[in-house]
Predict the structure.
Amino acid sequence: MIGPRTILFFLMTLFLGWLAGVLLNYLADVLPQTRSFSAAGCHSCGSKRSFLDLLLMRRCRSCQAGRTHRAWIVQIAAMLAVPVIGFLPPPALGFWIALVVFLYFGVVFIIDVEHRAILHEVSLVGVLLAIPFGLWLNGWSKTLLGFAVGFGVMLGLYYFGILFNRWMSKARGQEIDEVALGFGDVNLSGILGIALGWPRIIVCLFSAIVLGGLLSGLYILVMVLRKKYQAFTAIPYAPFLIIAAAVLLYMA
Ligand SMILES: [Zn+2]
């Protein structure tokens, strides 16, 4: 039997999902531009949006532009994800902590997909959130080791990527500007190391690299078949790290 309490809880998670979507859209819009909690502007004409405009996903008052596709996708995704987290929270975390983790991962995910970047400010907040989280979940020794491995392994891959680029630039006789792995990925991996702890961070890194490799391989194959392939298209790694970390937190 589905009682009134269940229905009420479901409605509350839907409402929270909508709010989470509004917050994620706001942060993903303003942080890459101003690095602060500035007023949100219209993507088309730049005129300011009020809090109610954001909350109700209203059209721009000046130019009548509707919200972007991304804004609606995020809104829908959050309204699907938050009820799922509400009814099936990761056992070790519970609903509210899982919600904070979802919001953090969401911001990093969207900004990395749109800008191929993980902002340093966002990483700093990640460290501040991950330290108490990791200590609570795993204790200090696993947290410390998790950080060392998460940060260290990605730092190694980062320098390997730079060397590889230099070598390819020489071999091809032209500069390659795109980096396979940005320093933001190194920071994120360090944060996930703190949050997941040792040895989960190794599983996370391995899964993300395999998942990212497989999907980018598939992408390259499709592009080659459509004759649109350009070598060295950077893939955003953060989404893969985040998906792997979310699965691992569910199993924690
Ligand atoms: Zn406008």
Q: What stands out?
A: The first helix runs from residue 4 to 34. Residues 120-251 form one domain. DSSP finds eight helices and no strands in the chain.
